[in-house]
Structures are given as structure tokens and as C-alpha cells.
């Protein structure tokens, strides 16, 4: 086993239903394969950011963002970040962000209902 440092910040906001975030996690494709994550238009980016993942009802939305640099991550790391925010924030009625993800720590993942102030800001 290895340790896991979640680096999650919770804040007040309209939290999605916990069951919807669990549905998102249950249906999200995950992989250990490293992929390049970068801003839209970056030809080196396999995954163009921002990238949204959501449950069937679109009540729980996870948005992956970058500070602007290309970074490498896996679907498993993104899944773990969403699970951490859901477990540490959403289940207590808050929204949250997982920071310092990816090989060079350039990625962040917001989990909310889509009405958070950060939504739409890249």
C-alpha cells in the first residue's frame, strides 16, 4: 500500500447530492495509462482542458483544469481526486477542489453542481 495525500479544499456552496457523485464515480472510465492533459488547442494534449465529467442527471460535475502547463496524469488519479472531494466535502454539504494533481502538480479538479463561482473560468 502507498499513502495518499488528498490536498483538498472544501468551501461553502451548493453541494451536489452524494449519491450523484457516487454515480459519477461508478460510471467513470478509469485507467492507469498516463495521458497528456493541457489547454484546448495544445496539440500535445491528449485530454483538452477544461474537461467535465458528470453523472447521468448532471447533478454532480467534476471539472479538470490546468494552471496553463501541460501535465501528465491517469484516469485513476483523476478518479481518486473526485472520490477525495466527494468524501471530504460533498458528504458534508460542501463543494471542493483537489489541487496539485498530475506529474508536475499543474492540475486541479473541482466538484460541484455547476453553479460554483469558478465554473466557466479557465
Write the layout of secondary structure elements.
Blueprint: E1 8-11, H1 18-27, E2 35-39, E3 47-49, E4 51-54, E5 61-66, E6 71-73, H2 75-88, E7 95-101, E8 107-112
Parallel strand pairs: 2-3
Antiparallel strand pairs: 1-7, 2-6, 4-5, 5-8, 7-8
Helix content: 10-25%
- List low-confidence stretches: 116-122
Distance N to C terminus: 35 Å
| Side-by-side strand order of the widest sheet | 1-7-8-5-4
| Main pleated-sheet profile | 5 strands, antiparallel
Order of helices and strands: EHEEEEEHEE
Q: Which percent range describes the beta-strand content?
A: 25-35%
Mean pLDDT: 90
User: Can you tell me the overall shape?
Assistant: globular
> What does the radius of gyration come to?
13 Å
- Subunit arrangement of the protein: single chain
Structural class: alpha+beta
Number of helices: 2
Number of beta strands: 8
Explain what this protein looks like in three dimensions:
Residues 116-122 have low confidence and may be disordered. The strands form 2 sheets. The chain has a 5-stranded antiparallel β-sheet, with helices on one face. Strands 3-2-6 form a 3-stranded mixed β-sheet. Helix 1 (18-27) runs antiparallel to helix 2 (75-88). The chain contains 2 helices and 8 strands, in the order E-H-E-E-E-E-E-H-E-E. The protein is globular. The protein has 122 residues and is α+β, with helices and mostly antiparallel strands. The longest helix has 14 residues, at 75-88. It starts with 7 loop residues before the first strand and ends in a 10-residue tail after the last strand. It has helices at 18-27, 75-88; strands spanning 8-11, 35-39, 47-49, 51-54, 61-66, 71-73, 95-101, 107-112.
Amino acid at each position: 500500500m502507498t499513502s495518499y495525500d488528498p490536498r483538498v479544499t472544501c468551501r461553502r456552496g451548493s453541494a451536489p447530492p452524494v449519491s450523484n457523485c457516487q454515480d459519477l464515480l461508478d460510471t467513470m472510465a478509469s485507467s492507469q495509462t498516463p495521458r497528456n492533459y493541457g489547454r484546448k488547442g495544445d496539440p500535445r494534449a491528449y485530454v483538452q482542458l477544461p474537461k467535465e465529467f458528470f453523472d447521468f442527471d448532471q447533478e454532480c460535475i467534476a471539472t479538470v483544469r490546468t494552471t496553463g502547463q501541460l501535465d501528465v496524469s491517469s484516469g485513476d488519479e483523476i478518479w481518486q481526486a473526485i472520490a477525495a472531494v466527494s468524501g471530504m466535502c460533498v458528504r458534508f454539504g460542501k463543494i471542493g477542489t483537489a489541487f496539485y494533481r498530475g506529474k508536475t502538480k499543474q492540475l486541479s479538479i473541482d466538484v460541484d453542481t455547476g453553479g460554483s463561482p469558478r465554473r466557466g473560468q479557465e
